[in-house]
Amino acid sequence: MRLRNRLMGAAVVVVASGLGLTGCGQSSDGGSGDTIELTIAQNSISGGKNAAAADYITNWVIPKFEAAEKAKGKNVTVKFVPSGVDDEQYKTKLSLDLKSGKGADVFDLDGIWAGEFAEAGYLKPLSDVVGADADNWDGWAQIPQSVQGLATYNGKKYALPVGTDGRVLYFNKTLFQKAGLPADWQPKSWQEILDAGNKLKAAGVPVPIQINAGTAMGEATTMQGVLPLLAGAGGQLQQDGKWTGASQPLKDALGFYQKIYGGSGLGDPKLQQEAKGRDKSFQQFAGNEIGILLESDYLWRGVLNPETGVAKMADRDQSVGYALIPAEEPGKGINGQDFVSMSGGALRAVNPNSAHPKEAFELAAFTLSPDGLKEETKNGNVRITPRTDVNKEILSSEPLLTYISDKVVPLTAFRPPVAAYTQVSVALQEATAEVVSGKTPDQAAADYQAKLEGIVGGAGNVAS
Amino acid sequence: MAQATLPPEVLDDAKARRYSADAAGLGRLRAGAFVAPALALISLFLVFPALWVLYLGLSNYRLTGAAAAAPQLVGFDNFVKALTDPEFWNSTWLTFEFVLGSAVIGQVVLGFLLAWIMRDRTGPLKRIVEGLVILAWILPSAVVSFLWVALLDRDDGTLNTLLHSQDFAPLLDHPMLSIIIFNIWRGAAFSMMLYGAALGNVPPSHLESARLAGASGWQQLRDVVFPHIRGHVLTNLLLISLWTFNDFTPFLLTAGGPDGKTEVLAVHVYQVALQGGELGYGAAVSTVILLINLVVAVFYLRLLRSKK
Amino acid sequence: MTRFVLHRIGFYVLIAVLLAFFTVPLLWLASAPFTSDPTYKVRLPDFTSENFRAILDNPYALGSLWNSVLLAAGTAVLVVVFAALAAYALSRVHLPGRDALLYTLLLLSSIITGTAAMVPLFQLAVELHLIDSQLGLILIMTGGLLPAAIFMMKDFMDSTPKSYEESARVFGASPLQIVRHVVVPLVRPGLATIAVWAVANVWGNFLMPYLLLSDVDKQPAAVIMYTLYTEGGQANIKLLATFGLLYSVPVVLMYLFVSKKYGFRFHGGIKR
Predict the structure, then answer these.
(1) Range A7-16, long-range pairs (CB < 8 A, 24+ positions)
(2) Is A314 at the interface with chain C, CB within 8 A?
(3) Predicted ipTM?
(4) Cβ contact C231–A100 (<8 Å)
(5) Which CATH class is domain B81-304?
């Protein structure tokens, strides 16, 4: 009975305070005495997802940072909070934590979430949370404007950018040779991609072209499919505050899908519907079954990597080529470009609820110091860091990453970092799915516009 | 069964039975104390959050964005949105197929069959059969989804190897049938266990006398076994229908696809609430699922209520 | 005689078909962990121990299995004890509104397992300071499983004979003693069924443990299982298959133990 009374009492407390839905209070780490306790959270975990990043934090950042603070006379201890889940689940957990005034002092998030987190009050401008230290950080001078833009929302910086990426057309040189195509292939229009596909098909390549489509591939369809094509046709998802509906660029992009999956035999429509379709596209590319694949640098680093990849390709460096994604026709891309790409990237933020925001920011900045980034990216863990000074040093041994950093990042585009984006992205995936299963591009574009109006609050926010 | 629905003369009868049924002399007070711990946990961790979900269904609450900072009550907007959305109706129809095919028919029949043919066996064969059936049920969903992709894959799937067929893609060409068969495989164990335990309560002497009287297997089932396990059949139907309605595992096999052809309601809620972040709308759809389950439960009760 | 033989043949054909249906999907789990560089294709394994060495290198794998055992055992014990007490009382004493209450709770329990309930449950745990507490998680999961458990348990309680309780009462046993020494032995198959059911539910639960436990040293295997993917969401099949096998072993052992000790084979041992 005593237990029952206690629980009932607790229930009353909850009823009294619960339904307000607003979080209050401080993050859990109060810190006793003059010891400052910090926590840092990432979607990475030793022995699992993004293991290298987790090991970097535990084995290098934490001891070095604690020692550096000690030298300054401060007693700081740092605890790492690992995770290893889908991005959506990580985002859910972050949101729930931040909403309740909890969460780690420093945490990573996908750049695309910045806007919705800011609007929800889960993130605050760095200068408000940390003060002048944030603006005076010496790292900013090394970070290109476009990458800084990832961390910027409504003109204010909300976090530190952790890095960026880029998308290119990968091609299998062995298959290209069989089809009589050059090893330094660089298409200048969509038609040239289709022409190469037809030659590959004639040479008996099972899947000449793989451009992700459909809902099963999720965001991979949007980022490695619709959006680069849309940019290549001169379209943008959102422009001057209005979303783009059934515009000509979107119809062109969907038309390109139709040319690949609509019975030409250039692509495999069934693969786009399979739950594990993207996994299989990787296995097929590694197994010399796919000629051309639009993917991000992750394919090179994490998938085909001869040592640590999930679909290892022992001769990756010799037999995988890469080319810029061409506009529909030269000069027809966004901003009149000949070539286009899409980029994303992670952010490292300071929790507005942190009891020690200054030290938390120091920790975040420490992880992005030149020494730190060099440590993180050694031993085959190379990635494109946010700092040009570091990139110059570490990328020299990695031809693809140098290529992306030098050629792709300057012409790339980013997704609109607003809350509605996730749903808009799904609507785009559904539009490609419709084309793959036989609808016309015009019809799929019209269906997309109808859904879009529902998502962004009426036709007034949509331009066609 | 509910007391409130009983006519007065039956009530008196029930009252008389109550005292004879309370064989251990529990009395209402001690009975209350027996129920208390369970009720306390249920009130706090189930009733309260469930009511909260119903409340969320009336709001435009989202996980992130401006609507997370200041959610507003929007009345029945979410329900109107759901009921006018063809995707919702598509999901509802698929869910009925899924529940009827995999739970009401598949699991109940297969589960009973397994329990019946294993009822008076002992030894390794029974252990192996029961063990395998239960293995399918206790394996975590994450593992199971890999098993079935490996089985049904259109390139290297075990099924294609066994049938010597090329490019047979059950998950794409017969997606609903695939997840129905999958769920029969996955959930038959529960029905088997429940019926197994229930059959244990059928007095062997009754079966014996029926056999001596020359009753066929089917007659034994109908006249001796079924009356004894009627309550268990009802319980089983109620529970597995409820669980299957809310089962999210098909998502791991097909991701709701191809083209939404396996997007049952639980998957729909997952996509709306977790992937889209629309928690208010997700809560409203959950409420609709609850109401459908209510109707289904009442239907079962009327169908199988034992005549006293 | 021929009829008997036909009967036998039919029986074994049926058994063979059922066995195949339940075995074929499991082949992958039997082969992939022992194969070098496994894929979705079922192949004859080359019996490498390399995959097991790799998973044992994972700093959280074994600890998470232990956490799963703790969570599952804790929840199963609470569910069985509370459900047995409540079901017995509800079966023997007609409390007003009993059946309506049970059905309502059962329906509400379905909403709690859905995705939409995660926000209320999370905020409730925050207010009660149950975040990052395994006990808190056990209580929350118990609350969600209890209605169905009581529901099942009541059936078993209803169908046990009352005469033993009456005799025990005549000999001066208290109600709790009667439940322990008279009723529990009678409904043992039911208790075992519910215990196994509760364990299976907890064992596979990913979302609630992930949201409510942030300390990785407290997280169960279902959560650690999800860490064996890459940054792009690709499965590390080698680790997943191997960990999947390790992850399955404790539940299978538990089933064998329960079925041997408490027996789902308790067929009418006491006759009416």
Answers:
(1) A7/B40, A7/B41, A7/B43, A7/B44, A8/B40, A8/B43, A8/B44, A10/B44, A10/C128, A11/B43, A11/B44, A11/B48, A13/C127, A14/B44, A14/B48, A14/C124, A14/C127, A14/C128, A15/B48
(2) no
(3) 0.87
(4) no
(5) mainly alpha
